[in-house]
Amino acid sequence: MALPPKKPPFKKPSGGFGGGRPFFRKPPLKPGEGEFNINHQIRAREVRLVGEGVEPKVYTIGDALRLAEEAGVDLVEISPNADPPVCRVVDYKRFLYERKKKAKEAKANQVKQDIKEIRFGPNTDEHDFEFKLKHAENFLKEGHKIKAFVFFRGRSIVYAERGEVLLLQFAQKLADWGKVDMLPKLEGKKMNLVMSPKGKNK
Questions:
Q1: What angle do CA 182, 133, 189 make, to 5 degrees?
Q2: Distances, alpha carbon 64 to alpha carbons 61, 101, 123, 135, 173, in Å
Q3: What is the DSSP letter of 38?
Q4: CB–CB of 158/149 below 8 Å?
Q5: How confident is the model at residue 104, as a pLDDT?
Q6: SS3 category, 131
Q7: Coil, strand or helix: which one is 130?
Q8: Which class for 159: exposed (0-12), middle (13-18), buried (19 or more C-beta within 10 A)?
Q9: Sheet holding 115-120, edge to edge
Q10: What domains sit in the chain, N to C, each tagged with a CATH number?
Q11: DSSP strand E in the chain: where?
Q12: How far apart are CA 61 and CA 47, in angstroms?
């Protein structure tokens, strides 16, 4: 009776943490989690390491991966264009969560900037001009952009030059609180001027 064939001897995978590429593999990333190279995806031979519990210096990729594996976290390439690339020892999911949280907080902290409209006619009198000028000044002080425009009805479009002069005077009187983003420009039946707040008031 013939004997069953012998099983081939077990061979330890080459590489390991002592040199070359490690043989451990992370589970496939979920969609949207591939923004950074991590672990075996990092192709550099040497990396500059940062993170908690590690000495910030240049390591071989094998040593950096070993430190990450021993800490039970990931090696994340955060600056691939640096020389050498900068990597962080951190749990990748936690890293993505912190980035998303910071981005959300930054967006929430942004001051919402409304555009306030100031309307004139080509024959606006001085009293109406000063009244609207005061409103525009307050809007700029509050951090809002303003869009001042002269609306031309029917044949009043022939007074387009008068509207341009009015808007330029308007911008000049607001120069202490705002800067011109768009000079007077005729668009259809409206001539528009756009200004933004300068920042700190004088």
A1: 50
A2: 5, 27, 74, 61, 62
A3: B
A4: no
A5: 82
A6: helix
A7: helix
A8: middle
A9: 115-120, 145-151, 190-197, 178-187
A10: 39-106 (3.10.20.80), 115-197 (3.30.110.10)
A11: 46-51, 58-60, 74-79, 86-90, 115-120, 145-151, 178-187, 190-197
A12: 6
Residue 46 · residue 62 · CB < 8 Å: no
> What does the pLDDT read at residue 67?
92
From the CB of residue 5, how many other CB atoms can be counted at a distance below 10 Å?
Answer: 6
CA torsion sign for 57, 62, 65, 71 is negative
Backbone angles phi, psi at 133, to 5 degrees: -60, -40
Enumerate residue ranges in the chain where pLDDT < 50.
10, 12-26, 28-32, 201-202
- Distance CA(2)–CA(110), nearest Å, equals 80
**Inter-residue contact 158 to 164 (CB < 8 Å):** no
- For residues 39 and 21, what is the distance between their CA atoms, to the nearest angstrom? 10
Place of tokens 């022939």: 158
Tokens of 100: 């998303």
Query: What is the per-residue pLDDT for 35?
Result: 79
